[in-house]
Design brief:
two-stranded antiparallel ribbon, 1 helix, 2 strands, extended
């Protein structure tokens, strides 16, 4: 899941990440700077 907020009590869910293990995600995010792109999916 992706969140935005100033603390753990004020987060708003922005989306989720599919097809990545926790270890793979940790490796991808273990850098100084990360760029995240958000896409809106059409509802069925």
């Amino acid at each position: 899941m992706l969140f935005y907020g100033s603390n753990t009590w004020a987060y708003t869910k922005l989306g989720h990440i599919e097809d990545l293990s926790a270890e793979n995600l940790k490796t991808l995010l273990d850098v100084e700077q990360v760029t995240v792109s958000l896409y809106l999916a059409e509802m069925p």
